[in-house]
Amino acid sequence: MRFDPTPLIAFMPMSLMYDDAGTIRYVAPTLAKLRDPETLIGAHISDVFSVRDNGRGNGEGPIPVGTKLYLNFLSGISTPLKGMAAAIPGIGLNLLNLSFGISIVDAVADYRLTSGDFAHTDLAIEMLYLVEAKSAVLEETKQLNARLQGAKVAAEEQAYTDTLTGLRNRRAMDHVMERMLRSGVPFAIMHLDLDYFKSVNDTLGHVAGDTVLQRVAKILLEETRGDDMVARVGGDEFILILNKFMEHEGLMRTGERIIARLQEPIPYQDELCRISGSVGITTTEFYDAPNADAMIHDADLALYSSKYEGRAQATMFDPKVHQGCVSDHVPQHARGESAA
C-alpha cells in the first residue's frame, strides 16, 4: 500500500515521516525551511535530532509514540522543538509532528517563517498575531518615550538657558557651582557688570540693548574654555565659572582682555553702541570651606571696587582689603547704571 502524505500537509506542515528503522522518508514544507530536505531524507532520525521523551529519558532506542517529545537539532541552529510520534498502521511508517512551543518567536526570526508556514488551526498563528501586535505597541511606546524624553531634555535645557543670549542662567550657575563645590574642584568666578549699558537702552532702545547683550555673550564664550561656564545672572550682569583656573595674573589678564573687547563699538543699524565692563574675581583658594554665597559676595565686592576706581577694569578679591566690606556700602555713583 502506497501512502500519500499530501493531505496531511495542510494540517501538519511542520512534520516528517520515518520508517520503522528510523530513516527519514518525507519532510513537510515548513520543516524543509529549517533544514535542507536533501540532508534529511535518508538520514537516521537520531543523526538529526536529540530526542527526550516526556519522562526526560535520553532518547536512546526507538522514538516513543503517543507521548510528548523534546527535540533539538544536532547541527546548525539548535532550535528547541516539541513533538509527538504516531505509527501509521499497515505501511511501516511513523509520523512525527513537530512544533516550536515557546520558542516560536525566535524560530520565526531565525528561519523567516510567516503565517503561511503554519496550519490554519495552529494556535501559533494567534500567538504570532499577538506578538506582532505587542511589537507594534512596544515600538509605538518606544517612539513615544523617545519623544517624551526629547521634550524633557528640551524643557530642562530651556529651564537652564537664558533665551536672549543662549548662555546659562542663574539657576544653571547655582547648579554648577553646587556640584563643583561638593566635588572639591578648584575654580575661579568672575563677576562682570556692563558699564554704560543703561545709556544704550535709553538712547537707542531695548532692541539695541538686546543686540549688545548678544554680542557680549559671544565675546565671553570666545574668551573662555569649553569646560568653563558663562551665565547671564541679571539684566547686564554675567558670572563666569573658570574651571581649575587659579593663577591670579592669568585671571587678571583674562578679565582685562574681556574688558578691552567690550570697549570695541558694537554696530546697531546706523549707530555704534559703546559700553565697557567692570570685573570682580575670586577663587576657591581664599576659603577654608568655600561656599557659593560667600564667593559671589566677595566677587561682588571686588566688582564694585572696579566700579569705584573708575570702571573698565578688573579687580582680584583681597581679603585684607575687602574683608568686612558690604557691597551696599559702596558709593552709589560707583554702581554703574544710575550714573551711566
UniProtKB/TrEMBL annotation:
<dbReference type="InterPro" id="IPR043128">
    <property type="entry name" value="Rev_trsase/Diguanyl_cyclase"/>
</dbReference>
<dbReference type="InterPro" id="IPR000160">
    <property type="entry name" value="GGDEF_dom"/>
</dbReference>
<protein>
    <submittedName>
        <fullName>Diguanylate cyclase (GGDEF)-like protein</fullName>
    </submittedName>
</protein>
<dbReference type="Pfam" id="PF00990">
    <property type="entry name" value="GGDEF"/>
</dbReference>
<dbReference type="InterPro" id="IPR029787">
    <property type="entry name" value="Nucleotide_cyclase"/>
</dbReference>
<dbReference type="InterPro" id="IPR052163">
    <property type="entry name" value="DGC-Regulatory_Protein"/>
</dbReference>
<feature type="domain" description="GGDEF">
    <location>
        <begin position="185"/>
        <end position="319"/>
    </location>
</feature>
